[in-house]
Structures are given as structure tokens and as C-alpha cells.
Amino acid sequence: MASTPSEPRVGTVHLVGAGPGDPDLLTLRAARLLMSAGLIVHDGLVSPEILAMTRGGARLVSVAKARSNHTMKQEDINALLVREALAGQDVVRLKGGDPFIFGRGGEEAEACRAAGVPVQVVPGITSALGASAAAQIPLTHRTSASIVSFVAGQCKGLSDQNWAGLAGKDRTLVIFMGLATAAQIAEKLMADGLAPETPVAVIENATRSAMRVLRGPLAGLPDLVQGHRVRSPALIVIGDVAAEQDTTVRAIALEAAQ
């Protein structure tokens, strides 16, 4: 009896969180996948130290995205993952922070599932947690913050977004991708009733050797970002906890706005 040809192998797409930058903060599973993967499709914010952990001969494909400058459109990234997996290749999709926190991992998982490609998700330390820990800023605190919210600062229609109640007494607001819209963010929050003197911290290059922590009042947020030429990756923390600091953390304090 003639044997039937076996079905072509379909690879698995692993959506892997690379964390905020320090390789020591990778999960063990993420590290194992990096050291064994043959194909790694990675974000631009993944640190060189983490990429150096990949095995010799691995193919690295950068799909870096910057504001208004995308190496590859999201639809094309989805298609790349599906194409490689259907060709039998296991793929590590390496994303900064956590794949499901502003990482568009949900979209990539949906595209893979729709094409019949198996997906596994390896969570990472989201940059909000990594940055706040590195800066020794507790996002929650028994006496000053019982609620914490994560928002994207560069979403379309920022002025139309309802942020009422996200920041204020006993609350912490963490803003991802907010450098380019820092002025609009400060204006929006103050228009919603947040006091101009509300503490703000901007954390640049969290957990990396070049980390900076810049502090000041909400009203001075635009000057804080522009005056110190803050560059991505950076997070903005707003609330009373942003005033918490340790002198051992490399920080620059900006005096209150005149």
C-alpha cells in the first residue's frame, strides 16, 4: 500500500517579551528561546545586549518602528510571521516590554490564528514596571496611590480621548509613547482639573546604563522633555508617587516652573 505524503510542517510563532532592556530581566523561557531560535523578528527598541544572546547563525530581521517612520507596516509584519511559519520555520517575535501591553501582540496573534499558525506568548516585564522599579518609584503606595492606569500618549485623536479620573488623588498615571505629545498631555490633564504642581517623572532608557530620571511639575512637563532632549524609549509617570526618589538613582531634578 502506497504511503500518503505527510502534511507540511507548520512552525510556531512565539510572541516573546524582551522586557525594558536589561538582559537580566528576561524570563528564563525567553532566554531559552533566544538561544535556540533560527529566526528572530525584533523591534527596534530591543537592546543590543539582548540581541547578542541569540545563537550563531540565527537570522535576525528588524521591523523597527519610530513615529512616522516604520521599517515595515504592521500588516506586512503579520504576513511575514505567517509566511515563515507556514514554510515550517519556528519564529521568535521579540518585542520590547510585554507583547500584550501596547505591543500590538494581539494583532499578530490574531493574524497567525486566522492562518492556522500556532501561537505561544511569553510575557515580559512591561516597561512601566521595569522603569518604575529602576527609578524606585512605587506605582502603588498604601498612603498615596491605590489605582494605576496605563495609557498610550500618541494614539490618534488624543484630544478626544477621555482621561477624566485617570490621574489625581490616590492615583498614578503611566504614559507610554508620550514624548512627542508631552505639551498636549499636560494641557489635557490640567484642563481636566489636575493641579499644575502635580509631580511628574520622565524615565529615559530604563534599566540600561544610560538611564535618566527627570522630575518636575506637570506644568513643566514640555520643558522637561524638550529641555533635556529626552529620547525614546521613555515613560512618563504622573502622580504623587513620582516625587518618591532615592539618592542612589541617577536622576536630574527640574525646579518647579516659574
UniProtKB/TrEMBL annotation:
The keyword Transferase applies. Pfam families: TP_methylase. InterPro entries: 4pyrrol_Mease, 4pyrrol_Methylase_sf, 4pyrrole_Mease_sub1, 4pyrrole_Mease_sub2, CobA/CysG_C, Siro_Cobalamin_biosynth, Uropor_MeTrfase_CS. Its EC number is 2.1.1.107. Residues 12-221 form the Tetrapyrrole methylase domain. Keywords: Cobalamin biosynthesis, Methyltransferase, Porphyrin biosynthesis, S-adenosyl-L-methionine, Transferase. Gene3D superfamilies: Cobalt-precorrin-4 Transmethylase, Domain 1, Methyltransferase, Cobalt-precorrin-4 Transmethylase, Domain 2. GO terms for molecular function: uroporphyrin-III C-methyltransferase activity. One of its GO terms (biological process) is cobalamin biosynthetic process. Pathway: Porphyrin-containing compound metabolism; siroheme biosynthesis; precorrin-2 from uroporphyrinogen III: step 1/1; Cofactor biosynthesis; adenosylcobalamin biosynthesis; precorrin-2 from uroporphyrinogen III: step 1/1. The keyword Metal-binding does not apply. Belongs to the precorrin methyltransferase family. PANTHER family: S-ADENOSYL-L-METHIONINE-DEPENDENT UROPORPHYRINOGEN III METHYLTRANSFERASE, CHLOROPLASTIC (PTHR45790:SF3), SIROHEME SYNTHASE-RELATED (PTHR45790). This is uroporphyrinogen-III C-methyltransferase. It comes from Novosphingobium fluoreni. The lineage of its organism: Bacteria, Pseudomonadati, Pseudomonadota, Alphaproteobacteria, Sphingomonadales.
